[in-house]
Design a protein that fits this description.
- The complex is a heterodimer.
- Chain A is mostly helical.
- Chain A has a domain at 1-103: Rna Polymerase Sigma Factor, Chain: A (Orthogonal Bundle), CATH 1.10.1740.
- Chain A contains eleven helices and no strands.
- Chain A has helices at 2-8, 12-22, 25-47, 50-66, 77-96, 106-119, 124-143, 146-157, 162-169, 173-190, 192-196.
- In chain A, helix 3 runs antiparallel to helix 4 (50-66) and helix 8 packs across helix 10.
- Chain B is mainly alpha-helical.
- Chain B folds into three domains: 58-88; 95-156 and 207-232, no CATH class; 158-204, no CATH class.
- Chain B has nine helices and no strands.
- Chain B has helices at 2-22, 33-42, 56-85, 97-117, 121-124, 127-151, 167-172, 175-178, 209-231.
- In chain B, helix 4 crosses helix 9 (209-231).
- The longest helix of chain B is centred in the N-terminal third of the chain and has 30 residues, at 56-85.
- Chain B is elongated and about 115 Å long.
- Chain B starts with a helix and ends with a helix.
- Classes of the chains: A mainly alpha, B mainly alpha.
- Chain A binds chain B through residues 29, 32-33, 36-37, 39-41, 44-45, 50, 52-59, 61-63, 65-66, 88, 91-92, 111-112, 115-116, 134, 137-138, 152, 156-157, 159, 184, 187-188, 191, 194-195, and chain B through 13-14, 16-18, 20-22, 24-30, 33-34, 36-38, 40-41, 46, 48-51.
Amino acid sequence: MALDKKLISLTDEELIKEFQDNNTIDAYEILVNRFKDPLMNFVFRFVGDRDICTDIVQDTMIKFYLNKDSYKSIAKFSTWIYTIAGNLAKNELKRRGRRVMLSVSNTDDDDITLQIEDKKFIAPDRAADNAIKDKIVQDALLKVKPVYREMIILRDIEGFSYEEIVEMTGISIGTVKSRINRGRAHLQKLLKNIYEV
Amino acid sequence: MERNNNIGNEKKEFEKLKTLLKELPKVNAPDNFEFNLMTKIRNKNFEVKSEKKKSIFYRVYAPTFALAASVILVFMIFTEKGVDADDPWNLQPKLRPEIQSSKAANFGDQIEESEASLKSPNNKIKNSDKSRASSQIQELNIEKNNLSVNKRSQPDYPFDKSESVDLDELLTTKESSSSSTGISRSHLAGKNDASKSQFKGFFIRQKEAEAKKESLRIHEDSLKQLNDSLKK
């Protein structure tokens, strides 16, 4: 228990070091607990299917467990784990091909609406509006090319810096910036109606 | 000035977009996420669902198998066409080697007969020329022989003559002449002596007279041509 308290206060990098050196499963569990939700959000926005998204994040965590030694302390843990999740999500998209567009089901949107209601009370009509708006944004996001979509999610939804995105994706900062701008422009075109309303 | 305004508008529009994206509700992991994960790890069930690799059969053997199958199919189709060109029911049975050799000997006799039947100028031909001519004729006859075997000459039945009954002869001639086959009328295959042979069915023999006549005519023509050439 004392060990747990001590572990919780550690940074991500210290926890992975602990897991690498002493194979401390508690350290692993703390890291899973810290990153499961951000990764779910990232992968869901990228793939658009909640069940597949859960599978991908589970697989990400398993990969992390199995390949813990491939993490080098020079990089941030978050960028490393996001890279794994991103690659798995891209593989999933490749596998599904064009079916991605059709995979945004109504049940997913219901779940999102419920989450909003859980956090704070919103009048039903407004909640419905928000749900519709979210669906429109998510649909538009899925229509953007995956290379641009990934950048927009990392930058504008997850809030990573350009440098962190460079580290995750392994492409130059110029390419990252141009992809983000192109993606935004495309998304903006798709969401033109939302701005007018 | 206008350009700066445009950039400002774009930035503003992107700001709107950014806030729109940031306002998107956060998607959280299901409640049993950690439990499921730790169960998998404890059970060492490390199958990566999202990255199921196709087995080696699909990656390597399946295309190879498909290619081989298509090649065989194409080959079969073309071969089938070749067979269809001839009616398989009308194909002649294959000659047995001993029958082939006896045929060849018969045709050799025929050549001699035809040479003898030809009159005068042939007798004047010198011996060397004669032998050369006969070899040429034989070659010619072999070719014709092949043709006639396929089309006109008597087909070779898959049984010995000594063990068969010629129905034509049997029906048209009298008993005495039927003995030329070596079997008496009452001695049908397999009737008295089962060890000798068994009855294998009826076969229709083609008339050989016309075929023989044709081949002799060809011999005659060829000899005449040879004679003319020698005269010159």
